[in-house]
Amino acid sequence: QVQLVESGGGSVQAGGSLRLSCVASGSIFSINVMGWYRQAPGKQRELVASTTNGGTIHYPDSVKGRFTISRDIVKNTVYLQMNSLKPEDTAVYYCRMTVKTRPTSVTSLEVWGQGTLVTVYS
Known about the structure:
Blueprint: E1 2-7, E2 10-13, E3 18-26, E4 30-39, E5 46-52, E6 57-58, E7 67-72, E8 77-82, E9 91-100, E10 109-112, E11 116-121
Parallel strand pairs: 2-11
Antiparallel strand pairs: 1-3, 3-8, 4-5, 4-9, 5-6, 7-8, 9-10, 9-11
């Protein structure tokens, strides 16, 4: 079993910054994709940022230039630095990773964190 533990959420004034962290633990051989999603009330969960072990990074237009995803492979940790926060960024943010638990694993396991609430007020 693999578990993701998130931290760093909270309440911040518009224009401020927060950094989210997500640490994976358990039986992990390798991690392929690391990403962040968010879900606001009444809306579908959407991708915020993702990165692969090959270095490919993706941001949607809604956060591009304001959010930065980074990772520490040795520590099995992914971060999301959020700057210039807006009220519309208010949502529950979820960490997602795809992992292999054994070197002989044919497929990767998709794991989600419990979510951390980010509230941006004006």
